[in-house]
Amino acid sequence: MSLCGSFFYLNEFYDFMIENNIRELLFTRLKNLGYHLIRIKIINASGKKTLQIMAERIKDREMNIKDCTFLSRQISSYLEVDDPISSAYTLEVSSGGLSRPLTILDDYKWFKGSKAKITLKEIFMGKKSHNGFLQGLDKDNLIILKTEDFEMKINFLEIDKANIDMNWAIENNKIN
Q: Alpha-carbon distance 52 to 69, whole Å?
């Protein structure tokens, strides 16, 4: 691996560690405010750093501009005190959006009946990505996904990433 490639992976690892630190810092605080933390991501583009935080209200799993403004102020206050990012960055607070990421096991229960795209870490049935309808969890907490061709049972740890299908969300008015 080249020196440039090593530097890239070190930066990715460093961002991953910061994201985990911020997740630990914010998870309980947001929960106490009535919000569920969906995802934290640091985006480095064109020499600018953005801290993207996705959240939603616990009571109804929705998020509007008023919620984003409120959380942005709260999160800014928390981050000013703890200062987990040493360089300048822009804070972006949003809902999960139309193609909401599925980031915790409970998401697969809450979004039962929704169409999702799940990308696995390893190839299964000839491919890594599978589209289908979430059927919740079985007794062993395996995620059940019903595709056009078969029903899959997936261990959460085998998932690289998963999202609600954006086109399905639009067609079924699942916009938050």
A: 14
Please write the tens of the pLDDT for every residue from 117-154.
Answer: 999 999 999 999 999 999 999 999 999 999 999 999 99
Inside any domain, residue 176: no
d(CA 139, CA 29): 31
Taking alpha carbons only, the member of 11, 79, 91 closest to residue 51 is 91
In this predicted model, what pLDDT tens digit does every residue of 151-167 receive, in sequence order? Answer: 999 999 999 999 999 99
Give the separation between CA 135 and CA 114, rounded to whole angstroms: 8
Cβ count within 10 A of residue 143: 24
- Whole-structure pTM value: 0.83
23 & 81 share domain: yes
Contact 49, 88 (CB under 8 A): yes
